[in-house]
Amino acid sequence: MITFAEPTDRDTLRIRHEFLAVPALRASVDNVAALLAATPRHARTALDSLVLEGFLERAADGQYVRSGAALSTGSTGRATA
Q: Is 2 domain-assigned?
């Protein structure tokens, strides 16, 4: 029997990299599941962990986007010029 584990750091890092590479990226759970070759449940858990961290936020249409705070401080947490 095959079981699916909770998202690994590698999956979360992959998602973070995609959003850092394209700051205006908007992605659905299904988009991220396809990117990771994972189940939608696995993708949602990874995305929601990035929301809890403040890196992403969920838009009104259900898509995940970089949070305003993450965009204004950059990836290091320091304010950008």
A: no
pTM exceeding 0.90: no
Please indicate, yes or no, if residue 46 is contained in any of the structural domains. yes
* Domain membership of residue 31 as a residue range: 9-73
pLDDT of 20-63, one tens digit each? 999 999 999 999 999 999 999 999 999 999 999 999 999 999 99
Whether residue 47 contacts residue 56, with contact meaning beta carbons closer than 8 Å, is answered with: yes
Could you tell me the CA-to-CA distances from 42 to 5, 29, 62, 76 in Å, in that order? 8, 9, 16, 26
Residue 22 belongs to domain with CATH number = 1.10.10.10
